[in-house]
Design brief:
The chain is α/β, with parallel strands linked by helices. The protein has a domain of about 170 residues: Nucleoside phosphorylase domain (Rossmann fold), CATH 3.40.50.1580. The strands form two sheets. Strands 4-7-6-5-8 form a five-stranded mixed β-barrel, surrounded by four helices. The chain has a three-stranded antiparallel sheet with strand order 1-2-3. The protein is globular, with a radius of gyration of 17 Å. Bound molecules: 1-O-phosphono-alpha-D-ribofuranose and guanine (GUN). The site of guanine (GUN) has 15 residues, from strand 4, strand 7 and strand 8. The site of guanine has 15 residues, from strand 4, strand 7 and strand 8. Its EC number is 2.4.2.1. One of its GO terms (molecular function) is purine-nucleoside phosphorylase activity. InterPro entries: Nucleoside_phosphorylase_d, Nucleoside_phosphorylase_sf, Pur_Nuc_Pase_Ino/Guo-sp, Purine_phosphorylase, Purine_phosphorylase-2_CS. It is an enzyme of class 2 (transferase). Belongs to the PNP/MTAP phosphorylase family.
Length: about 250
């Protein structure tokens, strides 16, 4: 997907966290995509790996200092919306930062004024124009049947949710639940980077006490493999259309 790649292993980058999750390769890949200079993370960091929340989001600030303007994120998530099917791709239009309700926000601590303001706005976290373009690209590629929009809720993990928790999150307005992305978005938006994010619905959240289904990481990885080609096509076509962007968060 990336042309002329130059690859750096996280373990070789001073102070960079290390990937510990199966399926997360732990490499930064620099190169071009559709002629645009890009850096890709092959593997991200999560609260459940035991990292401080500021460490999880350190790459966002590194990218900002490198001149990155637009962040495109993907994740795997459990589907809470009863209209979603396994394999659907949800464009994230908003998030619920559940750990944030208990004070776990990556911007806690002294504000880094060189990146952004003390109290950044989050009502525009997921760029409206990129979402519109992604829906248009999805329609052109014939992906409309499985392309959805919705609200992503982050939890700390690593245990998957109980049935009661899934029911509660659904009632609160979440369409999908996962363990990533939101902290990165908060730090990227604080620094004025434009954000776009996709959730691959890798499993259905279990909402029924009679159900025999069980969330598991193997299903998550397998759904990822099955949709990989289409996700690559969607993201690369979108990147080809992204315009230069120089917003600074208010
Ligand atoms: O959000 P990503 O890292 O895509 O992966 C999701 O899938 C893993 C659980 O199977 C968790 O890491 C969860 O956050
Ligand atoms: N929390 C959570 N994260 C996931 N990542 C992939 N599927 C799920 C899920 O069902 N719940």
């Amino acid at each position: 997907m990336i042309k002329d790649p130059e690859i750096f292993r996280y373990v070789d980058i001073p102070n960079f966290p290390k990937s510990t999750v199966r399926g997360h390769a732990g490499r930064l890949v620099f190169g071009t995509l559709k002629g645009k200079p890009c850096v890709c993370m092959q593997g991200r960091f999560h609260l459940y790996e035991g990292y401080a929340i500021q460490k999880i989001t350190l790459p966002m600030r590194v990218f900002k200092l490198m001149g990155v303007q637009t962040m495109i994120m993907t994740n795997a998530a459990g589907g809470l919306n009863q209209d979603f099917k396994v394999g659907d791709v949800m464009i994230i239009k908003d998030h619920i930062n559940m750990p944030g309700f208990a004070g776990a926000n990556p911007l806690c601590g002294p504000n880094e004024d060189r990146f952004g303001v003390r109290f950044p706005c989050m009502s525009d976290a997921y760029d409206r124009e990129l979402r519109r373009q992604a829906l248009a690209v999805g329609a052109e590629l014939g992906f409309s049947d499985f392309l959805k929009e919705g609200v992503y809720c982050v939890l700390g993990g690593p245990s998957f949710e109980t049935i009661a928790e899934c029911r509660m999150l659904h009632l609160l307005g979440a369409d999908a639940v996962g363990m990533s992305t939101v902290h990165e978005v908060i730090v990227a938006r604080h620094a004025g980077m434009r954000c776009f994010a996709l959730s691959l619905i890798s499993n259905k959240a279990v909402m029924d006490y009679e159900s025999a289904e069980r969330a598991n990481h193997e299903e998550v990885l397998e759904t990822g493999r099955q949709r990989a080609v289409q996700l690559e096509k969607l993201v690369s076509t979108l990147v080809g259309r992204v315009e230069q962007y120089n917003n600074h968060c208010c």
